[in-house]
Amino acid sequence: MSEIASEAMESEFGTVAGWTEEAVRALGPEHAVPAGCRGSGSEGALRWLADTLALRAGDRVLDAGAGVGGPAGWLAADRGVRAVCVEPMAEAVHASRALFGLPSVVALSQALPLADASFDAAWTLGVLCTTEEKPAMLAELARVLVPGGRLGLLVFVAEAPLPPPLPEGNSFPSPAEVDALLAQAGFAVTGTADADLGDSPPEWQRRADAVEAEVRRRHGDHPAWAQAEEQSGRVGRLLGSGALRPRLLTAVRSGPTASVDQVT
Ligand SMILES: C[S@@+](CC[C@H](N)C(=O)[O-])C[C@H]1O[C@@H](n2cnc3c(N)ncnc32)[C@H](O)[C@@H]1O
């Protein structure tokens, strides 16, 4: 199952995820986390979220839209949490199992195959802006969190209409829309920060670059590579111009869980 918004996103999040697993296997396991953070991108952002959410050893943590599992893999190794990944692209789920040994399931975050109140915390990094079904996604996250459960987000926000060319399939909310969506789903915001996606240590960046070069060497003439490059290039240009901003948020599930019908 994928039901993801566009063919370009299938290439970027599916095909390239499989190639990333292949390249990490070739280069060595120390490359897995840096190469596996496709969206969160920086160790500083992960550290800020883990600290602000006060994640501790043994916490049950859901990564919704986990990609190839880099952020959840980092979190499990750095904080000793019990991480579970949900991700619609089968190639990415295969990678998070193979590279990090994480329990991972193929599903969309607006239809989580998980029990009510089964997680202490969840995070979703670079995912809210990839779906139009934001209320349903946040309602599902509220449902699977315990009362008082903590939620972390990395969201790419835009204050004004963005100049084309836009990355296909994305729907970037404004900061005010994110706040309203969270409130509607029963979350109270506890922390916000602007993310600096370039603040990883040099070794982290060097390993991520090495995996990208290896994928290009193996598959650079494939149309899916060009499509994925075009997508990430468009996001990069918007971030570079400041029109799009990476925003980190933490929230707590405060109120009664709203049903999807109530928030749509
Ligand atoms: C920018 S990537 C971020 C991946 C990962 N969170 C990270 O930070 O490395 C966005 C991810 O969201 C996934 N995705 C897209 N729509 C989704 C949805 N409705 N529910 C869950 N995941 C979704 C994509 O397949 C992709 O893996």
TrEMBL record:
It comes from the Bacteria. GO terms for molecular function: S-adenosylmethionine-dependent methyltransferase activity. Keywords: Methyltransferase, Transferase. The keyword Methyltransferase applies. Residues 62-151 form the Methyltransferase type domain. GO terms for biological process: methylation. Gene3D superfamilies: Vaccinia Virus protein VP39. InterPro entries: Erg6_SMT_methyltransf, Methyltransf_11, SAM-dependent_MTases_sf. PANTHER family: GERANYL DIPHOSPHATE 2-C-METHYLTRANSFERASE, ZGC:194242. This is SAM-dependent methyltransferase. It comes from Modestobacter caceresii.
